Every structure is written in structure tokens, then in C-alpha cells.
Amino acid sequence: MNRYIYNGVSCLFLPMTLFAMFEVVMRYFFNRPTIWAWDINIQLFSAVVVLGSAHTLKQGGHVIMDIFVNRLRQRTRLIVNMAVYILFFIAMGIAIWQVAIFAWQSILLQEEASTFFAPPVYPIKTGILIGVSVLFLQGISLFIRDLIAYRMLSKERGST
User: Fold this and answer.
1) What pLDDT is stored for residue 142 in this prediction?
2) For residues 58 and 22, what is the distance between their CA atoms, to the nearest angstrom?
3) Is the pTM of this model over 0.90?
4) pLDDT of residue 157
5) pLDDT value for 4
6) In DSSP terms, which residues pair with 120 in a beta bridge?
7) Is 111 helix (H, G, I), strand (E, B) or coil?
8) Is the separation of the CB atoms in 153 and 88 below 8 Å?
9) Residue 45 has what pLDDT?
10) What's the rounded Cα separation, in Å, for the pair 15 and 17?
11) How many whole angstroms separate alpha carbon 6 and alpha carbon 48?
12) Cα 20 to the chain's mean position, in Å?
């Protein structure tokens, strides 16, 4: 699922680039800046970041303390990872709860950006909720992977 979401949002880089280029040309060559390009690019970039975060977690692209973690034995590293994931679940549970409230209120108000262009912001706030939820699910998947690896190591140790 993460791959499909990531492939979809990665396609947003092309329109973001084109909108930015259009804005630069209009602003600096024709002295006619747009009222919409910056607002749209902010929303597209937000979608890329939040919807791509779970794929980044899956690929191991988030910052970790390699210097510390790589010196540990594999079994200890798995224990540390699982402990960190438990903290991650608590933080993400709170984030999902708060972002759900945030998105729901935005939908009810049909909230718009406070700019002259005033695009609706409730779709991106809903996207943030989806992104945070998928990130949480990816964390569960990685926790289960580490738990299985830990159990396999423990069985190997017990049988030797």
C-alpha cells in the first residue's frame, strides 16, 4: 500500500516544479505574480511529506542514531527498536487523535486558507490524517517484523 501511495504522491513533484517555474517567470519577467502558485505548492508539498512518510519509514529513511545502534548486538538492537516503537505508538496515537479533530473541524467549517486565493485546506488536513494513520500502520508492521526476528534469534539461541 505504501508503495502505491508513494508512487502517487511522487508524481506531484512535476506539477510543483512547473507551478514554481511559472510563478518565477510571471513574477520576475512579467512583473505579474500569481495569487495561486504558492498556495497550491504548499498543499502539494504537504501531501508529499505526510503521505510519503510511511514509505520513508519502511525504507529506513528516517533519522536514527546509527553510531549508537550499530554498535549493539542484533538482539539488543531489536529490543531497542521495539522499545522505541512503543514510544512511537503512544506519540502517533495522540497525533492521530488530535489530527482527526483538526481535520474534522476543518471539514465542518469548509476551511479555506487565509490568503487572497483562499484554496480549501480541509482536503490537505484530511490527507495529513491519512498520512499519519498510514505511518502508524507502517510502524506496527515494522514492530511485528522486529518481534518475529527477536523470537527467531531467541529460538536459535535456545537450541544451540
Assistant:
1) 92
2) 34
3) no
4) 74
5) 87
6) 112
7) coil
8) no
9) 94
10) 5
11) 8
12) 23
Cβ neighbors of 85 (< 8 A, separation 6 or more) are: 139, 142, 143, 146
Low-confidence ranges of the chain (pLDDT < 70): 63, 65-66, 158-160
Taking the C-alpha atoms of residue 4 and residue 1, their distance in angstroms, rounded to an integer, is 5
pLDDT, position 107: 97
What ranges do the domains of the chain cover?
Answer: 2-159
Question: Inter-axis angle of helices 122-159 and 74-109, to 10 degrees?
Answer: 160
The whole-angstrom separation of Cα 127 and Cα 9 is: 11
Q: Which bin fits 60, alpha (ψ -120 to 50), beta or left (φ > 0)?
A: left
Please write down the long-range contacts of 90-93, taking CB distance under 8 Å and 24 or more positions apart: 92/132, 92/135, 92/136, 92/139, 93/136
Give the per-residue pLDDT at 5: 86
Q: How far apart are CA 127 and CA 27, in angstroms?
A: 30
Q: How far apart are the first and last CA of the chain?
A: 39
